[in-house]
Amino acid sequence: MASRFSDTDGDERQQQQEPLLQRGRQQDNNSQRAPACRSARYGLALLSSFGFFVVYALRVNLSVAMVDMLNDTRRAHRNRSGSLCPAHPGPARPERNHTAGVYDWDTETQGWILGSFFYGYILTQIPGGYLAGRWGPKWLMGLGILGTVAFTLLTPAAADLGAGYLVAVRVLEGVGEGVTFPAMYSMWAAWAPPLERSRLLTISYIGAQIGTVVSLPLSGEICFYLDWTYVFYIFGAVGLLWFVLWALLAFDSPNSHPWISEQERVYIVGSLKNELSPSGRSIPWGAIVTSRPLLAIVVAHFSYNWTFYTLLTLLPTYMNDVLGFSIQQNGFLSALPYLGCAACAVLSGQLADYLRERRRWAAVTVRKSFSAVGMTGPAVFLVAAGYTGCNYTSALTFLTISSSLGGVSASGFNINHLDIAPSYAGILLGITNTFATVPGMVGPVVARSLTANNTIEEWQMVFYIAAAINLFGATFYAIFGRGAVQSWALRADSYSCQD
Q1: pTM for the whole structure
Q2: How many C-beta atoms surround the C-beta of residue 346 within 10 A?
Q3: Residue 71 phi/psi, 5° resolution?
C-alpha cells in the first residue's frame, strides 16, 4: 500500500517541496562541496567509463566480425540481388600469411548467434543487483567483466567447433556482463550526490557509447589488415588491463576509499544521509514489484532497447547487405550514430543537472522531458532512414540523428532508478534491465527473419516495428513515470520529508 500512495501523492508533494529541499541541500552542502577536479567520485566515473567501454567493445565486436566470418559465396549471392544498392568499391585487402576460417551460416543462424549473448545477459540482472548489495559491487563488477574477457578470448576456437559452440560462449559472456550495470548502480547509490547524478552517471555510462564508437571501426580495420580472430584477442587484452586498474583503484563507498579527501567524503555521505535506507534492512519486494513508477521505467527501458539493440547488432549487416559498404568502410560508418549518441548523452547530463539545480525543475519533469526527446526523436528518424533508398548520405544522416537523439534518454528514465529508490537502485536496475534484455534476445532474430532477402522494403518493416515500440514506451513513461523517492525506499526518520 505504501507504494501506491507514494507513486502519485509523494511525487506531487515533491514537485511542490523540491525547490525548498534543494535550497536546503545547497545551504548545507555549498560550504563543504568538494571540487570535481581530482576528486574520487569523478575518478570513479572515469574508471567505470573505461569498464563500460570494455563491456560494449566485447559486446559489439561480433557484429562487425560476423560480416567477415561468412564465406564469400554467400556474400556474393546477396550482393547480386537487384533490390540492393550498388556496392561501394573499397581498396584491395592486403595479402597475409594467415587466414581465419569462414562459415556457411544462413540468416536464421546469424540471428541466433547475434542474439545469444542476451540469453546469458538476462539471467544475472536481478541476481546482480541483489549480490551487489550483499557482497559489494566492486568485485562483482570486476569479476563479471573478467569472465566476459575470458570467453571473448575463446570465441575463435568456439566458432571453429561450430555455431552451437559459438552460441554457448556468447551466452556465457552475457552471464558475466549481466551483473555490470546493476553492480555499478549499487556503487553509484553510495557515491553520487543527488544534484550530481546526471553528470556522474552520464560520464560513467558514456563509456558504453565510446566502446561502440571505437570497437566498430577498429574491428573493421582489424578484419581488413589482419583477420577477424584478432578482433577478439585485441579487445580481450584491453579488458584484462581494465581489470587490473579496477582491482587497484575502485572502492565500494567513500568510507572505504583510502585516498579520498575528508571534505569530499563528508560531502558525499552528508548529501545521501536522508535517501539511503539503513544497512541490513530487508528488501521490500512486495512494494518494489507493485510500484507503478518502476513499471514505467521497465516499459520505457524495454522500448528504448528494442531500437538500440536492433541497430547495435544489425547495423553492420545493413551497411554491408543493403548499402553495400565494404568491411573497412562498414566499421567507421556504423560507428557514426554512436558517436552522436555519446555526445548527446554527455550534453544532456550537464543540461539535466543545470535544470534541476539552477532552474529548480523537479526530477520528474526532467526525466520525462528528456525521455520524450530521447525516444520519440529516434523513432521518427529511424522510419525516415528506411525511405532514403540508396541515397547513402541521407540514410547515414538519419541513422546518426536517430541514435544521437537516443543519447538524451541517458538523463531520462535511465537514471530514474536512483530518483525513486537510491537504496535499491542496483536491484531496480536488475529488474528493468532483465525486461530490457528481451529485445536483445528477440530483436535480431525477428529482424533477420523479416529480412531473409535483404530488400529495402523488408528493412523498412524492421524500422517501423522498432519505432512503434519506442513511441509506446515514451507515452507510457510520460503517464506513469515519477521522480520522488518512494516511501518504501526511505529511511524511517525521513518519511515525514518526502512520503
Answers
A1: 0.72
A2: 19
A3: -70, 155
